[in-house]
Specification:
alpha/beta; globular; single chain; two-stranded antiparallel ribbon; 134 residues; 6-stranded mixed beta sheet
């Protein structure tokens, strides 16, 4: 697990240093070829879909970190844990579904931080196992 792993993204002409970089919140490596890119959000989206900006941001992270599965992690006001899996369309053939997946993880906020962390960990491992099957 790597927190806020950073990769250079854009450099201004005639500059020595990158001006912008990609930095997802968490990258979980299961093996060399399989990884889960996570982006945490602090907005409760309820039953709505995530914003198009969130979906685009995660797609770019998947492209840049060479991943196939990503997750947007949201707090949830209900006591139910919820995972919703979706897939991006293929950029070359827009009528086809690509192999890139985006999961919405909605996790109830808990008073005890260690319980919340354990719940998040279980959700992430569940997503990684299921992403292979989908």
């Amino acid at each position: 697990v790597k927190a806020q792993e950073k990769k250079d993204f854009w450099i201004r002409n005639k500059s020595k240093y990158a001006n912008s970089y990609m930095k997802p919140d968490i990258v979980v490596y299961k093996n060399k070829s399989e990884k889960l890119v996570l982006d945490t959000k602090w907005k409760n989206i309820g039953n709505d879909n995530p914003s198009i900006d969130y979906l685009r941001q995660l797609y770019v992270y998947l492209e840049y970190f060479n991943g196939n599965t990503g997750a947007l992690v949201f707090p949830n006001s209900s006591l139910e844990k919820e995972n919703i899996m979706g897939q991006y369309f293929n950029t070359t053939y827009p009528q086809e579904i690509s192999h890139k997946k985006c999961c919405l993880i909605k996790i109830p906020v808990q008073k005890k931080i260690t319980d919340w962390q354990e719940s998040i960990q279980k959700q992430i491992f569940s997503i990684m196992e299921k992403s292979i099957e989908i």
